Amino acid sequence: FTYTEPAKAPAPTLTSVSPSKALTTGGDLISVTGSNFVNGAKIYLNDTLLSASFVSNTTLRFRTPAWNLAEIVDVKVVNPDGGEAILVDGFTFEKPVINPPKITSVDPNTSLLTGGTLVYINGSDYKAGVKLYLNSTEVPVSLLS
């Protein structure tokens, strides 16, 4: 009796990641293209294992996780049989651009020293949790829109 080991499946290859960059906040849907992907293949960004969706033997998808740093990372696909492919520097995480708040008008722009005057501060790029200071004193605010 002679045992012949079955032929090993071809290792996966990686050709592209699209889009190739996303924000560190996570949640973007990314497609990985290549060949010889097998259902159950795993995707890693650097050493972080992600939840991957098998689409076909040439396409896998994943959602980006929240990432701590803006950096370029390697993309690795590992088939269940251990065959793997790495796309060095294949994906980029970028920090989101945060626009500072802009004040366009203050109404009224004067008040009595005793306080109690309702003041509207109009502008743009205000976010939930915005804080308002008059000199070094924080004053309560309500964000209207």
How does the SSE layout of this entry go?
Layout: E1 13-18, E2 21-23, E3 29-35, E4 42-45, E5 48-50, E6 52-56, E7 59-63, E8 71-78, E9 84-94, E10 102-107, E11 120-124, E12 132-134, E13 137-139
Parallel strand pairs: 2-9
Antiparallel strand pairs: 1-3, 3-7, 4-5, 4-8, 6-7, 8-9, 10-11, 12-13
Number of strands: 13
N/C terminus separation: 80 Å
General form: rod-shaped
Q: Nearest-angstrom radius of gyration?
A: 26 Å
Largest sheet: 5 strands, mixed
Please mark out the parts with pLDDT under 50 across 5 or more consecutive residues, or reply none: none
* SS-derived structural category: mainly beta
Order of strands, main sheet, comes to 2-9-8-4-5
Percent of sequence in beta strands: over 45%
In DSSP terms (H or I, runs of 4 or more residues), the helix count works out at: 0
Average pLDDT taken over every residue = 93
Q: What is the ordering of alpha helices and beta strands?
A: EEEEEEEEEEEEE
Concise account of the structure shown:
With 145 residues, this protein is mainly β. It has no helices and 13 strands.
Task: Describe the fold and architecture.
The strands form 4 sheets. The chain has a 5-stranded mixed β-sheet, with no helix packed on it. Strands 1-3-7-6 form a 4-stranded antiparallel β-sheet, with no helix packed on it. It is rod-shaped and about 100 Å long. The N and C termini lie far apart (80 Å). A hairpin with a 5-residue loop joins β8 (71-78) and β9 (84-94). With 145 residues, the chain is mainly beta. The protein has strands at 13-18, 21-23, 29-35, 42-45, 48-50, 52-56, 59-63, 71-78, 84-94, 102-107, 120-124, 132-134, 137-139.
